[in-house]
Amino acid sequence: MNATMIRARGLTRHFTVKKETVEAVRDLDLDVRPGEMVALLGPNGAGKSTTLRMLTTLLRPTAGTAEVAGHDIVTDPRAVRRRIGYIGQGNGAGHNQRGRDELVSQGRAYGMSTAAARARAAELISSLDLDGVADRVVSSLSGGQRRRLDIAMGLIHAPDLLFLDEPSTGLDPQNRANLQDHIRRLRAEHGTTIVLTTHYLDEADQLAERVIVIDHGRLIADDTPARLKADHAGDRISLTFDREDEARRADAYAAGIAESARVERHGANLVLRAAGGTRLVPKLLRGLDDAGIAVAAVEVARPTLDDVFLNLTGRSLREDGAAPGEIAPTDKTGRPNARQEEYAA
Amino acid sequence: MSTTMVTNTITNPITGTVTDTATVFSRELRPVLRNPFSVIFTIVQPLFFLALFAPLLPDTVGGEPALQWFVPGIIVMSCLFGTSTTGANLLLEMQSGSHERMLVSPLSRPALIVGRALKETAPMFAQTAFIVAVTIPFGFHLHLAGAVVGLLLLAVFCVGLGAMSYALALASKSQDWMFWAIQQTLLFPLLLLAGMLLPIDGGPGWLRFLARLNPLSYIVDAERAMFSGSVVSSTVGAGVLAAAAVAALGLFVGTRMIRRA
Fold this sequence. Notes:
The complex is a heterodimer. Chain A is an alpha/beta fold. A 6-stranded mixed sheet of chain A has the order 6-7-8-3-9-10, sandwiched between helices. A 4-stranded antiparallel sheet of chain A has the order 2-1-4-5. Helix content of chain A is 39%, strand content 25%. Chain A starts with 5 loop residues before the first strand and ends with a helix. Chain B is an all-alpha fold. Chain B has a two-stranded antiparallel sheet. In chain B, strand 1 (60-61) and strand 2 (64-65) form a beta hairpin.
């Protein structure tokens, strides 16, 4: 086995939308070693899926090169396709097909004999809890069942390298947890290299050992979730005082006690960002007590990947989720008074 | 889990494409086999044309009994309807993600197209058998060898037409209306200009000129010749050339569209 599973240099993709060139991915360098579990994290439109589509031969790069599983994505796409598995954003199984049939034809597509494909399909059906539904028409399956069927299809040929594009989008929390368990198990049991895209912060945090943050088509950070947080965010210590002038006085002291911390004051609140926040708090409280400043309340929060993203880009990743302004129930139906009429009647 | 399951690491490209075509073909056909009633309507449909159109024809057309002239035309027409909509099934699969899943697999690109197009020809064979069985009591005379060769020729043409329909679906992406607009706009002039339902011979010069430019005209003429038992003739030769040209062009355009991504 070669030492790198993925090696991309200067990978770039432009799209032309209404005569304007959009640089979806810009000059991306990426190395992934065998057995790694990597998450590409970024907001919608950051270029995660475009990157994945280039690495899986679905899209030709505008510039740059990439070797995936030992083969060049442009000059030898078929060899790449043989070695990788891909689970896209949509459902891979035809809606009028039966799950088991699709698994067998998927196996045949990867060059397995019909007997081998059948045996492997049976194995995956039981390991992904699809026993009761594998012989039903796909259109009658629930979202979670379809997603598990997608996973089974991506694994039919036991690929060394598996790509997942937004694997848990549209799943309820229980199915999401279930899916993440499957992905973890896959890696623990078979050492499969896994590259997934996500815009769920907790998913990247819990699942991946390495997070690659992408924004506006560029790689802006690449490390373990723990190190990203330590380097780019730090713990958040929030001190609340009874009066604003106490907070103002504390501001000056706090900077002296915790030298590495960044301190911000909002009214009677003081927010410090520093590594090792839990160890800093006792020292801070003692110091402020000695100076005669009474602290009313303390809160210590571990940093999230959102804090990392916020620090790197100045924007929050959560903004593209459910922004408060988006929740406008009356606009969706166009019948703002429907409910009132119901009550009136 | 071992990687030895993947047995096609070294494959002859030609046998590989044939196997891949069989894989795509059987995948496409499976829902039909699982639920044969879904195609009964398609198979019976040409009967309406026979029952409601054939009585309007004169007793003989171009020196042949009307039925002998009309039946091959109806067979080509149903094949045209079936294969020109190949891309419509693809549109659905493009939207759901199953087409993408096939594209990421090592399946050969021409196999993706040929397998799909051939699936549309499968009901055509059943349909032809049905039409022939129904028309024999009314005086249709079957030349079995000619009919079989005729259907094979039609299958070649259908692969080309199916490939073009596939390319059209890829080009119209998720805009279904564009696919249907273009498919319908092209289908009827092609059909009428091929003299499928009414003979072109009596028409004005410009119409006959346009008919000569229509590759489908040569296919229809060749089918009529073969269904009447004449397999070796210049008419059939012209039909073979037209079918081969359509197939080659369709596959060229179709594979290019897939690779262009």
